User: What shape does this take?
Amino acid sequence: MAAVSGWWDDFFWGSLVVVELFFVALIMTVLFGLIGAGAKLSNSRVAKSIASGYTIVFRGTPEILVLLLFYFGSAIILTAIAQIFDPEIKFVDFPPFWAGSFAIALIIGSYATETFRGAFLGVDPGQIEAARALGLSNLQTFIYVRIPAMWRLALPPFGNHMLSLVKDTALVAIIGLEETLFVAEQAIAYTAKPFTMYIVVGAIYLGFSTIITLTVMGLERYANRHLEVWR
Amino acid sequence: MSKADRQLMIELENVDKFFGSFQALKGVNLTVGKGEKVVVCGPSGSGKSTLIRCINRLEQHNNGKIVVNGHELTGAVKDIDAVRREVGMVFQSFNLFPHLTVIDNLMLAPKLVRKTPKAENRKKAMRLLERVKIPEQADKWPSQLSGGQQQRVAIARALCMNPEIILFDEPTSALDPEMISEVLDVMIDLAREGMTMICVSHEMGFARSVADNVVFMDEGEIVESGPPGTFFDNPKNDRTKLFLKQILSH
Amino acid sequence: MSFDIELILDSIPKMLVGIGLTFELLFLSLALGTALGIFLLILRISGRWYLAAPTMVYIYIFRGTPILVQIFIIYYGLPQLEFVRDSIFWPILKEPFGCAIVALSLNTGAYLSEIFRGGVLGVDRGLTEAAAALGISVRQRFIYITSPIAIRLCLPAYSNDVVSLMKSTALASTITLLDMMGIARTIVAETYAPYEVFISVMVIYLVITWAIQRTFAWIEKRMSRHVRREA
Assistant: This one.
């Protein structure tokens, strides 16, 4: 562990990058998931087929492939655009942070699409009918009955999506983002202690996973508090 | 039957059973002789099911003594499976193995436990299916049968092991009303053939015509017991009277 | 920017050379991971805390850290430790292929044991009780009653995990292996045509995913004969 001592601050900054990446990608994931679920549940055949194309592609392709395609692909487009203005430019790359968070969000968003869709359909139709029968408007029914019921159903799978998301951030080191795995590689170049450094990275991720797991457990308990009355 | 030549099959002495701090059985005493039929009734949560589940040790009692056909079920029982072979059980929810056909449901235990030849098991299984009047369903999946048919298969499955005793845990409670009698008929047949039976049931007509002894339980205790004539027509305890009034009034 | 059809036609056969390695990684880690998953399940449900507790820690660690970090620890990290270099496992662990198999199996085993546990817990307790009441022993109950029902219950989750594992095999390219992904990355590095190459390999991966899903759908249908009402 002595070898790590000079690297704690680098690991700290690396961890901070992971946190930033996590939250940025999380917001986009929810967005993609909601759009995808909305499209799948819509009456438009076009929207439906685009959404199912989206989930099939992003759930069936290796994460690293999506990431590399985005990073190098976007670089090609950006370079082409830049060359219109200045033919001297050889290479413009999309910042790894944004390419990474966008790619991860698209991947996890494809899973979230199914989760949100399932949660929407999973709400007991009897509850909706009961709300309508009581004279609640469509919007009121949606806000007061459907959303609370939906998020109870979506929470456990969405917790798993968040775990996948945080773990996928490690891949972004491959395209050069200076997160923990990248820090470890630099540290290894100096110290020649790969085992130690990668274990530190593993421990950091285990910490993140633990925080997410505990948070989701707390939220689930809150969401299901009405079931505990009789215990 | 006179007391003297009564051969005891089941003996419970001061049996207590706890689930955590909740006491499900409180000092229960009960004896069942060979060929006797006992019907146990009582409100839900009174410990009826727990009582018969202790007899084949699906639950372990905490205090007291249980002897089944000469095997003492106290403390660490060496070969509980040997006892269970002699005690058949029929459940409220049938519990047929859904991944096996009807005939395979009947043949599984003889194959695994008795290790008898397959042809023999099949012959016996078919004979039992005829006895419960559904031989034509032998090759179907349990999910394709009605509740009443499933329960009859479950009885046949228990009989496949040639048990000395059969325990029934509310065998007709999960059935639609029109299917109850087909199951009770099979049980009455069994009773006539001299099987030793303990039956948790609220079928009072069945109890009256078949039981040697009717037991009323409440809050984990045996409140009253006696032959059906006395039990139904002349109950002594107030709790028994109230229960009978509630159950017979509809 | 134009789409180079010739390059696609040229690189697909090259990448298909790597499909053998992809399949080797997939099937070997799936077999080992399944065996490990069953082993961990048995420890977990043994009812003995000194067997169950270490299993839970194992599962927690392997599910809580990125598979990429696990691969790096095993491939780059372990050689730092002298006792690993002296052990009988060294011939496996000094090769990238061996490391990839070890990492993928250890990882998928942790996930699979949780899936199997879900299946076992999903088996109606009444069924095992009914078997117990017939005098069938604990072991026979597990083999003849619990297992066949649990297998059917966890088949959909198992199928998803096989897809995940297949996607994870692409990470073997990060430790110099030339599976499909590795070859694709090499071609991209030479030609700098990420779209053509990565999209082609994506299509191949999607076909494999599709084949896996179809296979399991077929198995599931066969295994569900008994729940169909129709005679």
User: Anything to note?
Assistant: Chain C has a mean pLDDT of 92.
